[in-house]
Amino acid sequence: MKSKTQLFLEMWLEARARFSTQLTSLTEEELKKKLPPSPNSLGFLIRHIGEVEMLFAKNVFKALEIRVHAKTVIDQKDSGEWTNLKELLAYVDESFALLKEIVEKQTDEDWETLIETKEFGKRTKAQAFGRIVSHTTYHSGQMALIRKYGTN
Fold first, then answer.
1. Looking at residues 101-129, what average pLDDT do you find?
2. pTM
3. Which of 26, 32, 44, 100 is most buried by its number of CB atoms within 10 A?
4. Range of the domain at 25
């Protein structure tokens, strides 16, 4: 029988594949694409997903050694600076690895622990984890639409 951690990890990896598979065929030219009237580009969304993964590891799973300057979260709009594909891919590779590593360390009991964040109040770690899964898939859907219908 699989542990809660194994099951949650499998769920997250499957959901995150909606994001990561798009990255394999993405071009640097596409990073500036937007779907009006939305102000956010593909590059912004990629960076945002990475920042939120890092914030999640830090705030939900208490990986306090993680340093993240969540510019997309702070600014809440695209500044036009997320145009370097190599840097963005490295960033989301790092955010994925950090979050995956900390999730793998959770025990079944850890998932029942209550945490509190200013973003979504008191939740068990299991409930909170649903937020990162839905966050990434939500923005992955936006990315797919921008890639298909967006313009530079």
1. 94
2. 0.94
3. 44
4. 4-149
